[in-house]
Design goal:
CATH class of the largest domain: Mainly Beta
CATH topology of the largest domain: Ctag/Cox11 (Pfam 04442)
Number of helices: 9
Bound molecules: heme C
Largest sheet: 6 strands, mixed
Helix content: 25-40%
C-alpha cells in the first residue's frame, strides 16, 4: 500500500512541478503567452470578443442631438431622429438633414461638441461631416450620416456616474474660406458611387487592420474585388470564411460590410459599416483599385483563386 502511494507520488510530483513551471512561464512571459495564444487560436477569439461582444456593454446611455445654425447662414439644419439609447460600445448610425434655403450655392462648416463636456473623451465618431467645408447647392437638401459609439470605459469612470444623457451638438457656420469645399451632395443616395470618397473612408475605417499589399490583423485587400473569399496567400482565416465559398462581388461586399458576422456566422472581423452610402463608396473604391491593378505586375497575385 505504502509502496503504491510512494510510486504514485513519484509520478505525480514531477508532473506537478512541470505544470508549475509551465504556469510560471505562461504567467510571467508575455511573449510565451502570445505564442501560446497563437498556437491555440486564443488570441483571435479574445480579440473578437473584445471588439465585438465583450466591448458592447449591457449598460446603456441616451444620446440626444442638438443643432444650431449661426446667423448669416440661410440653412435649415435638424437631426432626423430624437434621442437614441445605445449600449456602450455599440456603433450607431444617425442622420442630420441640412437644407439650403437660398437660391445660391453656399459653403458652410460645422463644429461639434459633446455635453457634459467632461464626457467628450468617451464619445467616438467613426464617420461624420465635422470641420470640412461643405457646399450645398441652391435649395439642395441632404441627409448626412454620423456613426458614433460611446466607449465602454465610460461605464467604469466614477466621474461619469451621475450622467444620464449625453448631447451631441452641431453648429453650422457660413464658411470664411469656401475654396476646396466638399460637396454635401456626396450624401445623396441618388448620386453615383464615389470611389474617391470610398478611398478616404477606407483609410479612416479599414487600415487599422487591412493594407492593400500585406496581411495585417486582417488579410490584404489589394485586388479583392472578384477574388474568392478566404484566399489571400499566407493569411490565417477563420474556418467560417475559408470555407464560405463565395466571390467578392459588389453585392457580397456590401452585405459583408453591413455585418460580417450576420452575413457569415463565425468570422472574425469585429467591425461593420452601418451607413449604406459609405458602404457603396468603399465598394466602388475596392472595385476601382482592383481594376487599376488589372494591368500592373501584381495582377497575377491579386487574381489568384478568382473566378473568371
Ligand atoms: C478591427 C480590425 C478590422 C477592421 C477595422 C476591418 N477589418 Fe476587414 N477583416 C478583419 C479580419 C480579422 C478579417 C478576416 C476574417 C476571418 O478570417 O474570419 C477581415 C476580412 C475582410 C474581408 C475578407 C477578405 C478575404 O480575403 O476574403 C474583407 C473584404 C474585409 N475584411 C473588408 C474590410 C473593409 C472594407 C474594412 C473597412 C470598412 C474592414 N475590412 C475593416 C479585420 C478588420
Amino acid at each position: 500500500m505504502e509502496r503504491r502511494q510512494r510510486k504514485n507520488l513519484m509520478i505525480i510530483a514531477p508532473c506537478l512541478v512541470a505544470i508549475g513551471i509551465m504556469c510560471v512561464l505562461v504567467a510571467y512571459s508575455p511573449t510565451l503567452y502570445r505564442m501560446f495564444c497563437a498556437a491555440t487560436g486564443l488570441a483571435g477569439t479574445t480579440q473578437r470578443v473584445a471588439a465585438d461582444t465583450a466591448k458592447i456593454s449591457r449598460q446603456t446611455i441616451t444620446v440626444a442631438f442638438d443643432t444650431n445654425v449661426a446667423p448669416g447662414l440661410p440653412w435649415r439644419f435638424v437631426p432626423d431622429q430624437g434621442a437614441v439609447t445605445v449600449h456602450l460600445g455599440e456603433q450607431k448610425l444617425v442622420y442630420f438633414t441640412a437644407e439650403n434655403l437660398s437660391s445660391q450655392p453656399i459653403v458652410g462648416h460645422a463644429t461639434f461638441n459633446v455635453t457634459p463636456l467632461r464626457s467628450g473623451i468617451y464619445f467616438n465618431k467613426i464617420q461624420c461631416f465635422c470641420f470640412t467645408e461643405e457646399r450645398l447647392d441652391a435649395h439642395q437638401k441632404v441627409h448626412m450620416p454620423v456613426v458614433f459609439y460611446v466607449d465602454p470605459k465610460f461605464g467604469k469612470d466614477p466621474d461619469m456616474r451621475d450622467i444620464a444623457q449625453l448631447t451631441l451638438g452641431y453648429t453650422f457656420f457660413r464658411s470664411a474660406d469656401p475654396r476646396n469645399a466638399k460637396d454635401l451632395s456626396r450624401f445623396l443616395a441618388s448620386n453615383p458611387p464615389d470611389p474617391a470618397d470610398g478611398r478616404d473612408l477606407f483609410k479612416e475605417q479599414c487600415t487599422a487592420c487591412h493594407a492593400l499589399d500585406a496581411n495585417k490583423y486582417g488579410p490584404q485587400l489589394g485586388g479583392v474585388f472578384g477574388r474568392r473569399a478566404g484566399t489571400a496567400a499566407g493569411y490565417d482565416y477563420s474556418p467560417a470564411l475559408r470555407s464560405a465559398g463565395l466571390t467578392w462581388s459588389a453585392d457580397n461586399l456590401n452585405r459583408w460590410l453591413a455585418s460580417p458576422t450576420k452575413f457569415i456566422p463565425g468570422v472574425k472581423m469585429p467591425v461593420s459599416v452601418p451607413d449604406p452610402i459609405a458602404r457603396r463608396d468603399i465598394v466602388a473604391y475596392l472595385r476601382q483599385e482592383t481594376e487599376q491593378r488589372g494591368s500592373g505586375p501584381k495582377a497575377k497575385t491579386a487574381r489568384q483563386g478568382a473566378d473568371y
